[in-house]
Amino acid sequence: MESTPAAGENIAVLRKARGVGQARLARDAGISLSYLSKIEVGLRPATPPVVADIAKALHVPTARIYGQPFLGPSEQADLLNDLRSAVRRHTLPKEDMPTRDVLSAALGRAAELRAEARYLELLRMLPKLLGQTTATALTAGGDATAWGQVADVYGCAYAVAHRLGQPDLADMIVSRQSWAAQQTWNPEAEAATAWNEAGTYQSAGMYEDGLAIVERAISKFEAAGRGSGPNRIIPLGSLHLRGVVLASRHKDKRATEDHLSKARELARDLPDDVVRHNLTFGGGNTALYELAAHVELGQPDKASEMAGPLITAPPTGLKPNRVGRLYIDAARARLATKDLQGAEEALKAAFSVAPQMAEVHPMSREVLRVLFVLHQRSRPDLVAMARKSGLS
What beta strand segments (E) does 6-145 contain? Predict the structure, then answer.
């Protein structure tokens, strides 16, 4: 991976390019001058809420601060362009319809790659798969299953675009996913679309608006009356988990606890975590979101304490994309409590279980950057992870 700046470095570059002093930017962003200075030199990580506030103060999108984890010609860039073209021609698929068995196997493989955070492999198959599922659905009329499959493939595409820092593509994908879900009455597909739509607001740092999307989707889904089984629990619980992230980053403790409480209540009716429509829900994933909320709400001691048993024995049923995120949030918590060794160990675990996620995740890169600076580049494992992330 090519060497690229992390968020903290980009803040300094953008600030200077706009002729803004540190004191003014700190005041406009609502943070202390000392905190901003430490972010820019790599002594503190640039957290998502801080990035959102600084982006607003600098009049740039959050994506501009996060930058791209890769630049220039690369297989990833070429594949993203292929995906962009496939999404653009959503009503004009060029692919032929495969047999039902072939299509089902491909859909299963795509969901598996997404869950394993293997984004490059998923990118290689998405353009063709989008065309195949859409061609099949267009000939199936209002078949709920066929259009639900189209929505699910767009869900996989959103995960790639989001994780690889392509917010404009992610927005376009969500609109296509919504189009597919609305071709027939499919409340589960519509809930999954709303989950991703709220995610685009989350990425942009528009947490209050994202919460409005979640709350509207919850009301709509509950009004549809889906009984009490997994078809109801998983989409509804997942929407509440999205609400946990948005509310905690918005520093709304009451809304955070409200969404978390409702997610816990729903999770009690599932014996293990389940993945459906690319949504993961259950007691284990709810615990991971609670841990992350503690970090966002400035309670790293609670998060670090909670991370211990979860790291020792990750919840059964969780896929690498969720376990990798657990390790990244644990690293954030440990860094905040000045447990540098523990933060490094958590990052190493993230690189082990979900390397493609760890290499590009903004908070993984920010924690790594801070550890790299504090350790004066003297630790071989940190150097190796920095090189993989393009931070060397």
Answer: none
Residues paired with residue 281 on neighbouring β-strands, in sequence order? 274
Same domain, 75 and 54: no
What percent of the residues of the chain are helix, what percent strand, and what percent coil, each to the nearest 5? Answer: 75, 0, 25
Burial class (CB in 10 A: 0-12, 13-18, 19+), 356: buried
Q: Give a yes or no: residue 172 inside a domain.
A: no
Strand partners, 274: 281
Can you point out the beta strands (E) in 252-298? 274-276, 279-281
Q: Which residue has the tokens 């024995």?
A: 313
Q: Is residue 175 domain-resident? A: no
Q: What is the pLDDT of residue 71?
A: 46
Tell me, yes or no, whether 147 and 85 share the same domain. yes
Whether the CB-CB separation of 64 and 14 falls below 8 Å is answered with yes
Q: What is the mean pLDDT of the chain?
A: 93
The confidence score (pLDDT) of residue 193 equals 96
Task: For residue 176, give Cα distances in angstroms to 106, 147, 179, 183, 282.
Answer: 20, 11, 5, 11, 28
Asked whether residue 177 is domain-assigned, the answer is no
User: What is the arithmetic mean of pLDDT over 199-203?
Assistant: 97
Domain span including residue 385: 311-392
Taking only the tens place, the pLDDT of each residue in 303-341 is 999 999 999 999 988 999 999 999 999 999 999 999 999
264/315 same-domain check: no
Helix (H, G, I), strand (E, B), or coil: what is residue 96? coil
- Helix axis angle for 33-41 and 48-58, nearest 10°, is 100
* pLDDT (tens digit per residue) in 101-125: 999 999 999 999 999 999 999 999 9
**Whats the size of the chain, residue-wise?**
392
- On whether residue 106 sits in a domain, the answer given is yes
Domain boundary among 136, 166, 196: 166
Taking only the tens place, the pLDDT of each residue in 238-292 is: 999 999 999 999 999 999 999 999 999 999 999 899 999 999 999 999 999 999 9
